[in-house]
């Protein structure tokens, strides 16, 4: 019965029930169409029509679908997390899309590994669901986050998962001890550092190329009650980077618990200017405090300090003042607010709600994310921040340092060479129309500039189309990446939207 799948080309209702019955699925199947979730993503730049949208009930369903695709000469399978990719990475043109959100409720079990708490969660669960359940049930929380939590566990682990805690704990890929994965051969495998390590490290940061993550075991820590959230302003890039690098290089207990930063414009633009700094709407940014020599671009360091309700307020104040006292931000340009830990982690959800109310959440997002080595970040600032995007981008421009030693080189993530590198995020919100193409071209210009200058950089959430570009991206890891593909997904069935390997062969890449 399964073999007949390849002959279903156009999905009618009959085909849907044939597929459903032939696979003996516990989940559901829908025809793919251009208006469904599987043909879109957050980027809003691409649209394709999948053959079927399948809502699996768990790993067995996922394995059945992958095996069915393997019996055809051409079908591919894309796991879709929450579709927050920018460039169609979770899409499958004419193939099967697995909506992993249908598996969100699976698992969720507290376990102890070497005396430390971990939580087993579904690859289709949102980090927001993991947060709210872990904190309310156990008073525990994962250690490493993304800024925005309406992303799935499987989706971020396939990339890295980075936020202001990563300088201390590493990315989310450094904070899981075990995965359950359905490989491109349709095998269900449990893997860890010691059991199937090649699959474990391959899948982490593996862009969905080696398997579909159906369960992850995530490390937990005691959740704090409260967070003191602080932003301070710099007019000089060198002072901003000096302080940011100082904070991320300190030992635990001698720094903040979260360190991020962003670039903003020295004007009153509500999105890109002074108002973007204030955490407390009652406070106004007073530009008269800025040094006279300030340019058109400014920098904001964003930090957070965790504490418990039972802590003595003066102890918290002293610890925060001591840390701030070591920094050289512009005096009096500081914004502070105390919020609950959960509220802090859900901060981008509030921004999402506002953007939805203003009708800007669903417009195109030609985003560009890069990792740029410390050795090239001053040049990057001079060329990109101070020239190319100096008037703002209609959304945040993130920049903060990370430490390579907190990343496991056995995973599939490609990183710059230096120990300190910066994540740079140009998170553009662009109204539909010709300016979208212009912004995509501007992104390409930035990447080409980095290549031309020979800077030590990598794309984060990479998006390339040619084999040459992918090989350059992975550098000396390309052979390992290609070997892992040949071992775990030899027919190149999985994650076709990444456009790395072409169905049917692992030796060619889409051109
Ligand atoms: P999708 O976009 O659905 O999928 C991404 C890729 O992973 C696809 O190739 C897909 O096939 C594959 N995939 C999905 N699920 C699985 C699975 N279970 N197993 C194997 N492969 C799978 N990233 C950060 O690191 N830090 C941030 O702070 C951050 N903030 C963001 C904020 C917003 C508003 C947005 C839109 C994105 C942000 N991202 C951030 C990027 C985000 O991590 C990636 O876009 C991620 O891929 C999105 O997750 P998703 O669950 O929507 O995955």
From TrEMBL:
Superkingdom in the source lineage: Eukaryota
Enzyme class: oxidoreductase
Catalytic activity, EC: 1.5.99.12
Cofactor(s) needed: FAD
Stretches of the chain forming a coiled coil according to its record: none
Family label: Belongs to the oxygen-dependent FAD-linked oxidoreductase family.
Name of this chain's protein: cytokinin dehydrogenase
The organism of origin for this protein: Hibiscus sabdariffa (roselle)
